[in-house]
Every structure is written in structure tokens, then in C-alpha cells.
Amino acid sequence: MKTLIITAIILTAVGIITNLIGALFKLEHLPGAAMLLMMGLLTEVAGVVLLAVYFVRRAKKYHNKKG
Description:
By secondary structure, this protein is an all-alpha fold. The protein has one domain. Helix content is 90%, strand content 0%. The longest helix has 34 residues, at 33-66. The chain is rod-shaped, with a radius of gyration of 16 Å. The relative contact order is 0.19.
């Protein structure tokens, strides 16, 4: 469970960094900017989906203990 949240946070951080680099490439009109932006977006989406899975599992575990 702990590795899931660590992986999700790392993926989201890598996605944000990739998006920032892609935006800088776009500003400078360098090749590969669109690819970097798309890779960053997809990486962020994967990280957010993993975070959602983590929080859903955590909520289910909490409600099962409570009820």
C-alpha cells in the first residue's frame, strides 16, 4: 500500500517536471516540445489515477473497520 502512494507521487512529480520542460521547449520553439508536453500529461494522469486508487482502497479499509 505504501509503495502505491510513493509510486503515484513520483509519477506525478515526473509528469509535472516533464510538462515544465515541454513548456520551456515550446517557448523557445525547439523540436520535441509537443512530445514532451504529451508525455508529461500522460504521466501526470497515470499518477493521479494511482492516487485515486490509493484513496479508494484506504476509504474502503476505513469503512470496513468502522462498520
